[in-house]
Specification:
about 35% strand, 1 helix, mainly beta, Umud Fragment, subunit A
């Protein structure tokens, strides 16, 4: 989530809440066994569009690459 978050930053995460547009979320990657940190850009009926803050369009793997994620993929919300 560079440039918003940097290696070693400490954050408070909220579990069990519904994300809103603008929230930073920790989510399960839909195709890899890893967690990702991205910003919620859109919420649609079928899922959530998440996007990294990195201004380089190929510097981040997000919904541009894998599409919408399910709400159940959200592990925690980081409110900044």
């Amino acid at each position: 989530m560079w440039p918003t978050l940097h290696d070693g930053d400490m954050v408070d995460a909220i579990q069990g809440h519904t994300p809103v547009v603008g929230d930073i979320v920790v989510a399960q990657h839909p195709f890899k066994k890893m967690n990702i940190i991205k910003r919620v850009k859109r919420i649609e009926t079928d899922g959530i569009f998440i996007e990294g803050d990195n201004p380089d369009p190929i510097g981040s793997e997000d919904s541009h690459n894998f599409g919408l994620i399910k709400n159940s993929a959200i592990i925690a919300i980081i409110r900044d």
